[in-house]
Each structure stands twice: as structure tokens, then as C-alpha cells.
């Protein structure tokens, strides 16, 4: 039988005998999926093969994510000694797919090697023996037939999953962005590490999964530290592994270390074959830092370039547009997020908070209530409902919602602040409440000293200081929040806990500062060449 072979630079790819060898005869061992990926690229060379085509070919119709393909390409490159930054064999073509870099030459077809012919002879001999033995078979006793079945069964062994298979499956679960799938991803990454403790892809994947659980699914605080350590171990093994930089960014992000996270995300975007997910994460942190125009530009770029839109992209665009004051466009993007991804854990909270900042209390409450009914467990949802109840004068109902938020996530700072302030309203100052207040202030400041740059911490500090009567300290905390990027002046003018502070003229000067900063960002957006026509009118 003739067999299919290709020359790819110094490699010889032999499809029939499933081998890749270098010019000097050195074998290049490849897992089956990596081998199939190389074959798929060779057969289509020099064309660029789309991600969809590669997934359909290599995984034979099984539904896998683009991230699984990205990881498989990375494994193939590593086995070949290739690099994504300066590829010798496999090149990523942004928004289109992958192609082989060298010229691919189909080698002349040759007959199957002698070993194959020997197997044909052996097979013929076996067939003859089987024919002779058939007569004997039918005269065997029942016991004899049972023995033959037992022997035959013992020769069929199942194969344990390989590390590449475990990584591919873990990546597919991780991409689902659901709590149960996240747990499965964590377990699969840990299985892979039991087999290969120094596998950088497994270390980076587990880091990312743990950071996802900490940020999205109310995970334990210690998982944030573990996520950082795992990503750093992966980078020590492979400093140019984009996934590890992305994981490190998410781990820093989960700890509120915005500057470190942003740098890691940008490094990941520079190294990963498809940079859009890392760039979208970076854009969100630009927004947190108050760089609203840069955030919007990066998100628009991701929306244009990404074949598979990152799951939180619509939310990020909606939030940024809302802070810039383009309310109609923000509504379109947040409604789009809710309609396209009803299980998105961040979209309902973002949309409800926007409505809350606009003073549309009933709508905010309804959005949060529907999300809770769908089973989304995020502390901001009952916190928003509690805030609505508080603004409507129903303090017992508000307290119940805030306690519900803490039952979801014990580290929900705003719910804890609101409960403390409600307790003070009911009973006035007491030694116990004063101690809780001081402890909370101390925790916030210690977190900031440890690198937490998230402006929400300073906002909590402002609320506590204002409610316990130290308006100067509250204004200093607000200055810190503004310096870290806080830009929601609408909410500062509505928050029921700030009614007293709003009477202070210095507070209104801070509101004016926020508005000047936002207006400067807004002017960078209006008429920007990177912005699609009519985008700001709510026509994405």
C-alpha cells in the first residue's frame, strides 16, 4: 500500500506509520492529537486553516473550545522546539487560524515497509489457524469457552488519559465559565499535575481555574495566593508561556493588585497566539484605573478581532460607556450581554448597578431579582436589592438582603459595611460597634499597603468614616478612590449612606473633579478614528 508522507523543513511526517523524524533520524514523539494537528496543517499547506476547520478535523466533530486548540498548538510547538514569537514551524494568523511556516513537500508515495508485509503474512497465518481451530471450538466444553472468553478479555486494556488529554478537557471545562465546570477543570488540572508535577501548562491552567473560582464563584481567600504561586512556578519553567502570564494576571487581579495584573495581561497578549482574551482583561483594568478611553478602544479592538467574543466583553463595553455618560449605548451592550449569555455571572450586577446609579430603583431590583431566580450566586445581587430596600425606607428587608450577600461570600465588604452602619443607626455608638468600625478601617488600609489598588476599598473606607462622623477622613478616602480610578459620580450623589457627607462643600468639589476627569476621557472618545460610526448612539 502507498503511504502519505511530507517534508516540512527538517522534518519528515509519515502519516501511515504515525511518525515524525528529523533529518538526522531523530524521532520527535508527539501525542496523537498533536500529530493529527500537524497532519491537518500539512495537508492544507500553504493555506491558513481556520480554528473551526482544525477543531472539526482533529477532534472529529467533538465540541471543544478555541482555548483547547490554542493549548494543543502550544504543545505541538513545544514538542517541535518552536516558539510563538518567532515561529519556525507553526504560525498563528490573527483572526484567521494557523498555517505551517516552511514549504511543505509531498514526498513520493512508496510501498508499505517490510514490517507491514510481514504483518500481512502473520495475519494470513493466523486466519489459517483460526479456520483449523473452528472445528475444535465447537466441541469445547462450556468451561473451555469461559476460559477463552476470560483470556480474550484480559488482553483488552483501557488506556488511562494522557496529560495532553487531561489539559484539553480541563481547558474545555474552564471555558464554560460556570461554577460546576470550574470545579471539574480544577480536578482535571490537578490530575495532570499528579502525572507531571512540572508541566507548565497544567500549572498555569490550575492557577487560572483557582483565580476564576476566587473572583467569580466566591472561592476561598487562600486560593488567590495559591493561584499566584502556581503561575510563578509555570513561568519559572517556561518564561514565554502566554497562558502562564495570563493566569498570573488573573491571580493578581483577584487580589486587587491592579498594576501588576495589567502588566501581566499585556505580557500575555504579546505572547499568546490569540491575544484577544488577555487584551480584554487588560481593558477592564484600564477602566478600573479611570482610563476610560483607552479601555473602550481596547475593547472595540477585541470586538473586531476576536472570532469567539470573550464572555465578559459586552459587560465591559457597557460599563465603560455608562461611566462615560453614553447611557443609551451602555444599555444596548448590557442588554445584549443578558440576552446572549443569561448565565453570565457579572452582567446582571453591572446592569442593575447602572440602573441604581440612574435612580431607577425598581428596574435595578427587578434585574437583580431575576438573576437570583436563575440561580446566579453573586453577593452584589442581594446587596443591590438591599440598597434599594434601604433607599425605600425598609431597613429590616435591607438587612436581610445584606446578610444573604454575606452568606454567599463572607468577604463581601460592602454588605458587611452596610450591616455595620445599620446596626449603628439602630443602637447608636457602642464600644463593640466602634471596635468593628476601627477593625474594618484597619483591614482596608492594610490591604492597600499590601498592594490592593481596587478603588472600592477606599469607597468602603469613605462610607465608614462618614457614617462614624469623621468627614475629613472620609474625604481623604474619597481622594484615594478617585486617584485609583473611581469615576461613578452619579452613585456618590445617590448612596443613602452618604446623605450627611453630601452637605459638606468639600464633597461637591470632589464630584466636580470626577466630572472633569470623565469629560476629558469623553472628549478622547467622541469622533475617535477607531470608533465605529453611530457606536455611541447605541448601534453596536
Give a verbal description of the structure.
This protein has 540 residues and is mainly alpha-helical. Among the domains are: 102 residues, Winged helix-like DNA-binding domain superfamily/Winged helix DNA-binding domain (Arc Repressor Mutant, subunit A, Orthogonal Bundle); 27 residues; 112 residues, Alpha Horseshoe (Serine Threonine Protein Phosphatase 5, Tetratricopeptide repeat). The chain is built from 25 helices and 6 strands. The strands form 2 sheets. A 4-stranded antiparallel β-sheet has the order 3-2-1-6, with helices on one face. A two-stranded antiparallel ribbon has the order 4-5. The longest helix is centred in the N-terminal third of the chain and has 24 residues. The chain is elongated. The protein starts with a strand and ends in a 15-residue tail after the last helix. About 9% of the residues have low confidence.
Write a concise keyword list for the protein shown above.
540 residues; mainly alpha; Arc Repressor Mutant, subunit A; Serine Threonine Protein Phosphatase 5, Tetratricopeptide repeat; two-stranded antiparallel ribbon; 25 helices; elongated
How would you summarize this macromolecular structure in one to three sentences?
This protein has helices at residues 32-44, 51-58, 66-80, 114-137, 142-154, 163-174, 179-195, 200-216, 222-237, 242-254, 258-271, 276-288, 292-305, 313-324, 327-340, 347-357, 361-373, 380-391, 395-408, 413-427, 431-449, 455-467, 471-484, 489-492, 505-525, and strands at 5-8, 11-14, 19-22, 90-93, 97-100, 104-106. With 540 residues, it is mainly α. Among the domains are: 5-106, Arc Repressor Mutant, subunit A (Orthogonal Bundle); 114-140; 162-273, Tetratricopeptide repeat domain (Serine Threonine Protein Phosphatase 5, Tetratricopeptide repeat).
Amino acid at each position: 500500500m502507498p503511504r502519505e508522507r511530507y517534508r516540512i523543513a527538517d522534518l519528515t511526517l509519515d502519516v501511515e506509520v504515525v511518525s515524525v523524524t528529523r533529518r538526522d533520524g531523530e524521532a520527535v514523539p508527539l501525542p496523537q492529537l498533536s500529530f493529527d494537528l500537524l497532519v491537518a496543517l500539512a495537508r492544507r499547506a500553504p493555506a491558513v486553516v481556520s480554528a473551526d476547520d482544525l477543531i472539526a478535523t482533529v477532534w472529529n466533530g467533538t465540541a471543544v473550545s478555541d482555548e483547547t486548540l490554542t493549548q494543543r498548538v502550544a504543545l505541538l510547538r513545544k514538542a517541535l522546539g518552536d516558539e510563538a514569537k518567532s515561529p519556525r514551524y507553526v504560525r498563528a494568523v490573527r483572526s484567521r487560524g494557523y498555517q505551517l511556516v516552511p514549504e511543505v513537500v509531498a514526498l513520493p508515495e512508496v510501498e508499505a515497509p517490510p514490517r507491514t508485509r510481514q504483518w500481512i503474512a502473520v495475519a494470513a497465518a493466523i486466519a489459517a489457524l483460526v479456520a483449523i481451530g473452528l472445528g475444535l471450538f465447537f466441541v469445547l466444553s462450556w468451561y473451555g469457552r469461559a476460559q477463552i472468553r476470560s483470556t480474550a478479555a484480559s488482553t483488552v486494556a483501557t488506556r488511562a488519559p494522557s496529560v495532553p488529554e487531561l489539559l484539553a478537557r480541563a481547558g474545555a471545562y474552564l471555558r464554560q465559565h460556570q461554577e460546576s465546570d470550574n470545579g471539574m477543570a480544577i480536578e482535571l488540572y490537578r490530575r495532570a499535575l499528579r502525572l507531571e508535577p512540572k508541566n507548565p501548562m497544567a500549572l498555569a491552567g490550575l492557577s487560572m481555574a483557582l483565580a476564576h473560582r476566587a473572583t467569580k464563584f466566591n472561592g476561598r481567600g487562600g486560593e488567590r495566593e495559591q493561584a499566584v504561586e502556581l503561575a510563578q512556578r509555570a513561568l519559572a519553567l517556561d518564561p514565554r508561556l502566554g497562558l502562564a502570564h495570563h493566569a498570573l494576571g488573573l491571580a493578581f487581579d483577584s487580589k486587587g493588585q491592579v498594576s501588576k495584573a495589567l502588566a501581566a495581561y499585556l505580557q500575555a497578549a504579546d505572547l499568546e497566539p490569540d491575544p484577544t482574551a488577555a487584551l480584554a482583561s487588560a481593558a477592564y483594568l484600564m477602566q478600573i484605573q479611570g482610563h476610560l478611553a483607552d479601555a473602550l478602544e481596547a475593547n472595540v479592538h477585541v470586538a473586531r478581532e476576536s472570532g469567539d467574543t470573550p464572555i465578559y466583553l459586552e459587560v465591559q463595553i457597557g460599563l465603560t460607556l455608562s461611566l462615560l455618560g453614553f447611557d443609551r449605548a451602555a444599555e444596548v451592550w448590557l442588554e445584549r450581554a443578558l440576552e446572549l449569555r443569561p448565565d453570565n455571572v457579572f452582567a446582571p450586577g453591572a446592569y442593575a448597578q447602572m440602573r441604581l446609579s440612574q435612580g431607577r430603583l425598581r428596574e435595578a431590583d427587578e434585574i437583580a431579582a431575576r438573576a437570583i431566580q436563575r440561580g446566579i450566586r453573586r453577593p452584589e445581587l442581594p446587596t443591590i436589592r438591599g440598597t434599594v430596600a434601604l433607599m425605600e425606607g425598609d431597613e429590616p428587608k435591607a438587612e436581610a438582603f445584606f446578610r444573604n450577600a454575606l452568606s454567599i461570600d463572607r468577604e463581601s465588604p460592602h454588605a458587611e459595611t452596610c450591616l455595620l452602619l445599620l446596626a449603628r443607626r439602630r443602637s447608636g455608638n457602642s464600644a463593640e460597634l466602634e471596635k468593628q468600625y476601627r477593625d474594618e478601617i484597619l483591614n482596608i488600609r492594610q490591604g492597600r499597603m499590601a498592594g490592593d489598588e481596587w478603588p472600592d476599598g477606599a469607597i468602603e473606607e469613605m462610607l465608614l468614616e462618614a457614617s462614624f462622623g469623621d468627614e475629613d477622613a472620609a474625604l481623604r478616602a474619597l481622594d484615594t478612590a478617585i486617584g485609583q480610578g473611581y469615576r461613578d459620580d452619579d452613585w456618590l450623589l445617590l448612596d443613602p449612606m452618604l446623605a450627611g457627607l453630601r452637605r459638606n462643600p468639600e464633597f461637591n468639589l470632589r464630584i466636580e473633579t470626577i466630572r472633569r476627569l470623565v469629560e476629558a476621557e469623553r472628549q478622547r472618545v467622541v469622533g475617535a478614528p477607531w470608533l465605529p460610526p453611530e457606536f455611541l448612539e447605541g448601534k453596536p
